[in-house]
Amino acid sequence: MLRNLMARLFGRGEPEEVQIPPDAWRELCRDQPEFAGLSTEECERARVLAGRFLAGRPFYGGDRFVPDDAMQMRIAGLAVLPVLELGLDWLADIRSVIVYPDAFHVDHEEVDEVGVVHHVNDLRAGEAWSHGTLVLSWTDIEAGLDLDHGLSVVIHEVAHFLDGVNGAENGFPPLARGQSRTQWTQAFQAGFDRLNRQIDAGEPTGIDPYAGSHPAEFFAVLSEYFFRRPEALQHFDATIYGLLEEFFRQDPLGRRAGRQGASERIAVRD
Questions:
Q1: CATH architecture, domain 1-146
Q2: Class of 170-270 per CATH?
Q3: DSSP-H helix ranges across the chain
Q4: What confidence tens digit (pLDDT) does each residue in 156-165 have?
């Protein structure tokens, strides 16, 4: 039913693509912090990728929630941003999306330092399930319109899927051709260790301390910062920023600076 509504409101071109209205998409590109600095051409390419993402994956609501078309568009846009230059094939493992109205409870098991298994119930804003479901809290996505919120739950969970493309979520996704595995390992390990030393010492970290819980979370959190708060990531570790720039083939800092410079030149002419 929801997919039929989506097709009726958005219209369809090719069978494999949902046609997202350009006006609604431009508004998203303007308002969502992660899209800051995108050129008109990049924004349009993202619109096409988001339409393909929507066409190929059913959306479901948890707790009787109904994610409407605008919600689905926002989620799709954020999901495809990390693969704007990599291609949608990188998201092939995402087969469906579940959206809860708010943070949701998850039962799971944890093993402590001495090997004892504990049953834990956590409240989550998002999850990347290994069988291909992306699970999200709409409240946390909506909060992302405020840059002070600092988090980007969609990009975080998508990063887990990218990390797992090679079969394991360990903070080591398949790298670009020619990208040094040794440099990646050394830089990310050093950054992870430094973050945990700061946490243990009670020092300010500059990034979300949750990144220190596991190498996979380190990669996912830093991916959030890369697209949402690139200045903070570069300040935390410029080498890691450069490696993520090479991996994603995007430079959020550079394009934001370029867009700001263009705006300043226009203001001077005015």
A1: Orthogonal Bundle (1.10)
A2: alpha beta
A3: 2-10, 22-31, 40-56, 69-80, 138-143, 153-163, 181-201, 215-228, 230-236, 238-248, 252-269
A4: 999 999 999 9
